[in-house]
Structure formats: structure tokens, C-alpha cells
Specification:
With 66 residues, the protein is mostly helical.
């Protein structure tokens, strides 16, 4: 269960949604505290790393729902 939760969190991070990403990592790590990718991403989020494309208006993910 940790792997899909980690991937969902990673997608949130790509979109610039750090809080949601951190929440997914927390849940993933409750299922498997030794899941290495979740631990690394959790450390990255804790350090405040933001995806490069989420930092720029022209490249950031935008929800196009009207």
C-alpha cells in the first residue's frame, strides 16, 4: 500500500501541492516505515523542495475546469 500512496504524493508534489504530498507520505510511511522512496520524498518535502515547473507561472500545473 505504501507504493501507490507514495506515487500519489509524488504527483501532488509535481503539481505544487506540498501539503497534500506530505500527507500522502505520512500515510504511506504508516503502512511501511521502511519504504525507501517514501522516506526520501518525505525528507525532500520536509526540506521545502518545490518542483521546478511548479515554481513558474508558465509551467505550473493548472486545473482547467470551468
Amino acid at each position: 500500500m505504501a507504493a501507490p500512496l507514495t506515487m500519489l504524493g509524488h504527483i501532488c508534489w509535481w503539481k505544487g501541492k506540498g501539503t497534500a504530498a506530505a500527507n500522502y507520505m505520512h500515510v504511506a510511511l504508516t503502512f511501511d516505515p521502511d519504504y525507501h522512496l517514501a522516506r526520501l520524498l518525505d525528507q525532500m518535502l520536509g526540506a521545502g523542495v518545490v518542483s521546478g515547473w511548479a515554481q513558474h507561472k508558465n509551467t505550473a500545473y493548472r486545473n482547467h475546469h470551468q
